């Protein structure tokens, strides 16, 4: 083999050369008689594909085999693109690019494809740039979209306040539209958040029959106790409630079922108020969990057609709501809250025991 052939062969199938140079420094290669410039290039590329210190990498192994045909200058070109890819997309992007370019042959093709891939990575990295703080209202037909972008801490607080406000207005299961309305009303001041918060915290505790009397305007002699420690006469209570929400229609029907509209915006607030009159704690026998921390439970489950009205509702804490045996497909064996002619009780299907926990009269 002539010296020219030897030179050409070493340059043409560079992976073999790099494999032999594995672990050698440029200085060691110079000592073997290679020029400093070539020694540096070989040592650098050898460390990319054959560094014995680097743990096994699937990408590297694949590159060695699919790039076996490549010449040294091709691998140098590839390395130039790989280094840009690393800046744009990290280690993984660099190896994916090496692997792709190693499948090609010819300097021209490698340069063309390398440049195209780098352009792709550049546009992807532009898109993934963190959004800038700002607010934008954009019209879409008769709807307008608000996009609000701020730092994560400010927005975390804004999110918590928005969710809490939406729950106060529309109940735990507020819809997307109700969520948006709650946020918009916070911004416009249509809802005074403080007022709603206060109303949520303060309840009047009135037995249902007394509440019915109040709403029939027979309750002037009654003293209504509020959960903030204050009290008012039945008449004052009636006036206050009429101003706030107009609950009269609901309670007037106490002798029959008291309807709450399933989709009513204020259903949950009314419901909770009424449920507090029914019990100030979880209704499960022996449980003292405060009603404020309870869930409004459907005695006949919603899924089986149970209506959202006061006769079908009771406070249950999260735990007792969880073990309440109301799903025949998943018996818990812990008993179930039932309503018999308006009397609510805990019933054990095993023993047939029925413990009254609430009676409307
Ligand atoms: Zn409980």
From TrEMBL:
GO terms for molecular function: endonuclease activity; nucleic acid binding; zinc ion binding. Residues 270-322 form the HNH nuclease domain. InterPro entries: HNH, HNH_nuc. Pfam families: HNH (PF01844). This is HNH nuclease domain-containing protein. The lineage of its organism: Bacteria, Bacillati, Actinomycetota, Actinomycetes, Mycobacteriales.
